[in-house]
Amino acid sequence: MTHPNRNARWGHVLIEELAAAGLAGLCVSPGSRSTPLTVAASDHEDLRVFSHLDERSSAFFALGRARRLGAPVGLLCTSGTAAANYHPAVLEASNARVPLVVLTADRPPELRDSGANQTADQVKLYGDAVRWFRDLPEPDTTDRTLRRLRVDAARAVSTATGTPAGPVHLNVPFRKPLEPVAVPGDEPEDPDGVGATGRDGSFVESETGSRALPDAAVDRLADRIADASRVVLVAGPAGPPGAAPPSLADLGRITGAPILADPLSGARFGIPGASDSHDPPFVCGGFDAYLGTDAVEDWPEPDVVLRIGASPTSKPLRTYLAASDAHQVLIDPAGGWREAEFAVAEHVVADEAPTLAALTETLSDRGVDPKGRDRTDYRERFEAAERAHWSILEGSMERERLEGGVVPAVLDAMPDPSTLFASNSMPVRDVDRFARPDERSITVLANRGVSGIDGVTSTALGAASATDDPLVAIVGDLAFYHDMNGLLAAGRCEVDATIVLVNNDGGGIFHALPIEQFEPPFTEAFKTPHGLSFDPTEALYDLEFTRVDDLSALTETCRGAIGDGRLDVIEIAFDAEASHRTREALTAELDAALSADDSS
Ligand SMILES: Cc1ncc(C[n+]2csc(CCOP(=O)(O)OP(=O)(O)O)c2C)c(N)n1
Questions:
Q1: pLDDT tens for residues 406-430?
Q2: Which pLDDT score, from 0 to 100, does residue 453 have?
Q3: Is residue 455 within 8 Å of residue 445, measured between CB atoms?
Q4: In angstroms, rounded to a whole number, what is the distance separating the alpha carbons of residues 543 and 332?
Q5: Probe ligand 1: pick from 90, 478, 500, 511, max atoms within 8 Å of CB?
Q6: 235-255 mean pLDDT
Q7: Band of the pLDDT at 146, cuts 50, 70, 90?
Q8: Paired strand residues for 234
Q9: What is the full DSSP assignment across 346-404?
Q10: Does the pLDDT value for residue 367 go beyond 90?
Q11: How many other CB atoms are there within 10 angstroms of residue 278's CB atom?
């Protein structure tokens, strides 16, 4: 292909190489300085291009798509504040290990720090939040420089998808002309190969091996587990695509240990036999409710806790782990120290799946009895607590308007397979507490890297763009307000999704904090009731807006909305303060039930 000037060729080579290395889409926003890259992307036959007006929403859309796919997605914007608008999503991608390739166009070097229009310091703009930064040289026509550009593109994708996955940033300066107009003398040294003579596909293929533990280390860990009377497995939030390794279920089966499955771990759903507590593996989903009760203080301590994934969403679980004297082992393939309880005694840097599989095999060779007396006693505590929690929830669903009841009401409508996206604040906590483990393949996602309430709609729509499975997002009203711009992507990117808008007129979560008692400033500065009516979003964004009054209508309306080929917003209103009092009442009811069980 011929390119009329060096910028056009530079843009073509960079985009071609990123696509060849596996970029699973590019989210572009309008601007002049990025023209050579935007033109190259729109000329590319295989690269899916998503056009977004707002860079902040665009970045979260890319994040959601990359998170759902477990593959790198690119971002492209012009110079100046456009690039800064990517920052929130870059922080989330960094902490949550989601692969993003960020391309920011820039002014040529002599215009930096000169007062030139729309010029900011973009060098290392995202600081340590990116796995790799490179300030590319100005476009050049030499074979050697173009080869370097191809290597940089391959390296960007390889680094973004490495261990740990995360964002990378290429800053790309261009001088005019930015459009594909002819410039005499801009012919490349090698017009056919443009720096890639003799190579097909990706210029540099990357291969990554798995990190396995040496046998002696597996043996030592297996000794710990075999000698323990009480073992707990904790699966925290996982990196993309979020499926728990089957070896976790196998280890649960062979040890008889309860698996405390964070909703974002990939283990809450999709494990065969998960809901049947008499046939291991025993997947627990109600621990957020019962681990904080007084009744649990009388339980015997676990001896060994084996943990995978990031720090759990559930505060009661984190508090339980922090207070425990058990020997806690954290397995992390990236060697990350993601453990803010400071309770871990052993930090294992290895891939989870082969490590858990090796442990299972070693323990099985040793004939560990999953039904040993102490193990069974301990497990029965969790079984009883799970039974009590789910039966109290069922009773209260019938009895009263329960904000957390949105979760089972939505799950009732969700087909197998499907994707559930939980906004931060109470939605993700309610999913943690009220999503009962089952065998359906439901992928649960949330932005728990930095837990922002910004970009939630865009992340959900980006995730929906990545899958044919239906996606339902549960979003609070402040989070919905925060990213209303993101709604535009549904039509522009042809995304089918359903948003359940839990409208309690402000930040309901603050009722759970002691600041609730301080008035002022509680209402004005924390809860921030806004009184906004969101139905005009229907006309503004061409979506289907429905208001429902109760949980059964929510389930019915969700069923109709799922898979209807467009964006639906279903609003259900609650009183935030009453919701918190109900949550407290449910905990008290559970505590009483467990204490009564103990004394009988
Ligand atoms: C970008 C950002 N700003 C502020 C916060 C602090 N924050 C956490 S939860 C919350 C309230 C969210 O309200 P809403 O989305 O309506 O959910 P609810 O609390 O009612 O469940 C706020 C402001 C945050 N996490 N992220």
A1: 999 999 999 999 999 999 999 999 9
A2: 98
A3: no
A4: 42
A5: 478
A6: 84
A7: very high
A8: 260, 307
A9: EEE-S-HHHHHHHHHHHHHHHT--TT-HHHHHHHHHHHHHHHHHHHHHHHHHHHS--GG
A10: no
A11: 7
What's 244's DSSP letter? Answer: P
Closest CA to 449 of 69, 96, 45: 96
Q: 346: Cβ–Cβ under 8 A, 6 or more apart, which residues?
A: 221, 327, 328, 329, 330
Q: How many whole angstroms from 64 Cα to the centroid of ligand 1?
A: 19
Task: Tell me how far the alpha carbon of residue 516 lies from the centroid of ligand 1, in angstroms.
Answer: 15
Provide the pLDDT for residue 54. Answer: 98
Which own/partner contact pairs does 81-85 have at CB distance under 8 Å and 24+ positions apart? 81/120, 82/29, 82/31, 82/55, 83/55, 83/120, 83/122, 83/125, 84/120, 84/125, 85/54, 85/55, 85/56, 85/59
User: Residue 523 and residue 514: Cα distance in Å, rounded?
Assistant: 13
When pLDDT is averaged across residues 209-218 and rounded to a whole number, the result is: 94
Residue 118: closest CA among 104, 130, 97, 102 = 104
Structure tokens at 6: 């060096």
| CA–CA gap between residue 398 and residue 390 (Å, rounded) | 13
CA distance 8 to 580: 58
Residue by residue, DSSP assigns 427-484 as: HHHHHHHH---BSS-EEEE--TTT--SSSHHHHHHHHHTT-SS-EEEEEEHHHHHHTG
Q: How far is CA 522 from CA 419, 430, 511, in A?
A: 35, 23, 9
pLDDT digits (tens, 9 = 90+) for 42-67: 999 999 999 999 999 999 999 999 99
Site residues for ligand 1, CB cut-off 6 Å: 423-426, 451-454, 476-479, 504, 507-509, 576
Q: Which pair of structure tokens corresponds to residue 347?
A: 């930090």
- Is the pLDDT score of 189 beyond 90? no
pLDDT of 274 reads 58
- Distances 407 to 53, 278, 413 between C-alpha atoms, Å: 32, 25, 10
Q: Residue 441: is it exposed, middle or buried by C-beta count within 10 angstroms (0-12/13-18/19+)?
A: middle
For the chain, how many helices (H) and strands (E)?
A: 20, 18
Nearest CA to ligand 1 atom 11: 507
DSSP 3-state assignment of 22? coil
> Is 208's pLDDT higher than 60?
yes
Residues 6 or more apart whose Cβ sits within 8 Å of residue 332: 308, 338, 347, 348, 349
pLDDT tens digit string along 541-567? 999 999 999 999 999 999 999 999 999
